[in-house]
Amino acid sequence: MGIEASNRIVVKVGTSTLTFKNGKMNLQRIDKIARVLSGLKNAGKEVILVSSGAISVGCGELRLSQRPQTIEGKQAVAAVGQCNLMSIYDRCFSEYSQVVAQILLTSDVIDDSVMYKNACNTFEELIKMDVIPIVNANDTVSTAETEMENDFLSANVAVITKADALIIMTDTDGLYDSDPRINKNAKLIPIVKNIDETLMKSAGSKGTPRGTGGMRTKLEAARFAMQHDIYTAIISGEDPALIYSVLEGKPAGTLFDIGK
Fold this sequence. Notes:
Blueprint: E1 8-13, H1 15-18, H2 27-42, E2 46-51, H3 54-61, H4 71-94, E3 99-105, H5 107-111, H6 113-128, E4 131-137, H7 150-160, E5 165-170, E6 191-192, H8 197-201, H9 215-227, E7 231-236, H10 242-247, E8 254-256
Parallel strand pairs: 1-2, 1-5, 2-4, 3-4, 5-7, 6-8
Antiparallel strand pairs: 7-8
Helix pairs in contact: 2-4, 3-4, 7-9
């Protein structure tokens, strides 16, 4: 058994993986992600992509030197960025004969039983239609979503879709015993079986200026997923092919093992 037996997989891609420092999209990286996920689909896996990046891409498209500080500004920029992001995803995945669908979620979907059921049904129908759902927080209409961490959103999507595994791609190789940006002797933790407060404290703080998360939010997402018997892995977004390694049970990043 183990993560190798996973059939339904949620892959979360962070802003730092999708974009350059100037906010422009890293098209080569996005194409690699599309190729890997399409390969998984061709192998019979069911794939859901949770994608950050709307605000950062919008800033790049509008040539803004920094992210807006107001809710209204973030919402407007996200509207521009989400349009461009989905256009690129649609183009890249179509090169590998895959159809994608956009799903924008708000936090009340998680809390409202009727909306939750509707979301579950929509995901199931799309998967039956052999479509790859691409999910993001609905930044453009809800003031809560611009502050919503997509790491935790991805864990919720994994639970909503009854996924077997959640793979989070980010700008580090995985979880370290201390912040590798500060401590050059920090060591990668390959397997985690329990997320306690000591581990949470070692996670450090926010990641890059382009994103809203950091390792702590990824640990919170992993803990939530583990509570629902979902394997979680944190890997470097520089090499999307590492997804294959994770699903083959090979060493890659940090695996949060639920022991099944």
